[in-house]
């Protein structure tokens, strides 16, 4: 009985050690950029906990055609650590805000060799269980027009034509109704004038 009461007291007082919960990490799906330009790769996370002082962010990079990933950035203990020997040395800058769950990085002076997959992992102790999120970077001389942009343009044109047709339809109805009203008023006025003349003749 005493053991049961002791356990109940621990639960009620919230003295049970915190258990880790799942953390959900978000990045983009695919990014396009021009040679020589800069690009921001965003990384954020969702956690049921308050943002911990021990929050960490890690970025890895896997070049196209390679099976191996390399670490290019790590944030921990309030400090950012950039790989100073890899392909992004002197070209990577931390632009995130850990207090707002933002672990974004900025890649500068992009080149064709930067094409590849960038993976972000985040931990918000005690929430440390989660699947890293990846974004693919494609560098071009000219950014291609995406299929979604073309589809959106076509939909926009079609909707614009439909709106124009509806406007023309109601405008024609208005003009016809106005014409009919004018003819009706004119006819009624003519009859009234003829009736007045006939009464004058009889008198």
Automatic annotation (TrEMBL):
Location, primary (coarse class): membrane
Its topology with respect to the membrane?
A: Single-pass type I membrane protein
Report the transmembrane regions from the record: 145-171
How far does the signal peptide extend, from start to end residue?
1-22
UniProt record, GO biological process: myelination
Quote the PROSITE patterns the UniProt record gives: IG_LIKE
Residues annotated as domain Ig-like: 17-136
Q: Which GO terms describe its cellular component?
A: plasma membrane
Q: Which domain of life is it from?
A: Eukaryota
Q: What UniProt keywords are attached to this protein's entry? A: Disulfide bond, Glycoprotein, Immunoglobulin domain, Membrane, Signal, Transmembrane, Transmembrane helix
Output the SMART domains linked to this UniProt entry: IG, IGv
The cellular location(s) given in this protein's UniProt record come to:
Membrane
Q: Which family is this sequence assigned to?
A: Belongs to the myelin P0 protein family.
User: What name does the UniProt record give this protein?
Assistant: Myelin protein zero
Native source species: Labrus bergylta (ballan wrasse)
